[in-house]
Design a protein that fits this description.
Order of helices and strands: EHEHEHEHEHEHEHEHHHHHHHHH
Low-confidence stretches: none
Distance between the termini: 60 Å
Number of strands: 8
Mean pLDDT: 94
Strand content: 5-15%
Shape: globular
Number of helices: 16
Length: 336
């Protein structure tokens, strides 16, 4: 049994807290929001973000970051990606040398183009930083529906330790050394999911969705491999697997925001309606900057940015994607 703290009490942090508690670990949940701490203590569930998923009476809920971080076998960092760096900076004085931090959010910092694990390593250099990623909506993990994910870490020892901590009859965990590829897949799929949602909002069908998923993973893999990720990662759970579930699921906040924009809402109106952090909006500009820096063609990402930040209509964006210059599906395939 491990002594674990989950930092961030949103839907994903709450779901993982329940999973870890089910696995026999001693679990503390930390939130920066005093009202959220009070609600979790009194109601023993997150009534707005994960209703119906009960927290055990022996799970501690706290707003004290120092006590949540110190003397824990490992920490799960589950705050939304825009707040990862700031939270890591606050945690840093309390993190012991070699203490394991598992980041479970997905995103890229627009200003530095750093993945979340790199941000954490920069703020907490003494930590052993790992990531958990894959097709895993909190609503289903909280209900204990079968799910598969991947732990990425610098060392096999850390990966296997965390694999044993998280794996359960309803939560199968694989391990991988390709942390960069995993994080890029998990971050960039949110941008493609916005496009999939926009297409749904416009009333387009399954053919359109399949095209966006397939061409979306092609864009993600092109950039990811150029940056040093492994092609195998993008064909796995943290690549195409995560992209499929985020583009298709009713639980996907990115797809939902895209759908609302396809229906005519602005980006700001859609985010307000979703009422949760839509991480694809924060990753979209970073994805476009990375594509430019690494000289990689990412037309879907470009059109999503045009809709989000340049006032382009969703219908015009899809039309421009369809009417781009004709080309081969895969330039690696040639005629004899």
């Amino acid at each position: 049994m491990a002594n674990v703290s989950v930092l961030g009490a949103g839907s994903w942090g709450t779901a993982l807290s329940v999973l870890l508690h089910d696995n026999g670990h001693r679990v503390t949940i930390w939130s920066i929001d005093e009202n959220e701490v009070k609600m979790l203590r009194e109601k023993r569930e997150h009534t707005s973000k994960l209703p119906g998923v009960k927290l055990a009476d022996d799970m501690e809920i706290t707003g004290d970051l120092e006590s949540a971080v110190k003397d824990r076998d490992f920490l799960v960092l589950a705050v939304p990606s825009p707040y990862t760096r700031a939270t890591a900076r606050k945690m840093a004085p309390y993190v012991a040398e070699g203490q394991i931090i598992v980041d479970v959010a997905k995103g890229i910092e627009e200003t530095t183009l750093m993945t979340l694990s790199r941000q954490i390593e920069q703020e907490i250099p003494q930590a052993d930083v790992a990531v958990l990623s894959g097709p895993s909506h909190a609503e289903e993990v909280g209900r204990r529906l079968p799910t598969t994910c991947v732990i990425g870490a610098k060392t096999k020892k850390t990966a296997e330790y965390l694999q044993a901590a998280f794996i359960s009859p309803v939560f199968r965990v694989y391990i991988s050394p390709d942390v960069l590829g995993m994080e890029l897949g998990g971050s960039l799929k949110n941008v493609i999911a916005l496009a999939a949602g926009i297409a749904d909002g416009l009333g387009y069908g399954d053919n359109t969705k399949a095209a966006l998923i397939t061409r979306g993973i092609a864009e993600i893999a092109r950039l990811g491999v150029k940056m040093g990720g492994r092609i195998e990662t993008f064909s796995g759970l943290t690549g195409i697997g995560d992209l499929i579930v985020t583009c298709a699921s009713v639980h996907s906040r990115n797809r939902r925001a895209g759908y609302l924009m396809g229906q005519g809402m602005s980006m700001e109106e859609a985010m307000a309606e979703v009422k949760m952090v839509v991480e694809g909006v924060y990753s979209a500009k970073a994805a476009a900057k990375l594509a430019k820096e690494y000289n990689v063609s990412m037309p879907i990402v470009d059109e999503v940015n045009a809709v989000l930040f340049e006032g382009k209509s969703a219908k015009d964006a899809v039309n421009d994607l369809m009417l781009r210059q004709s080309c081969s599906e895969n330039t690696a395939l040639t005629w004899e």
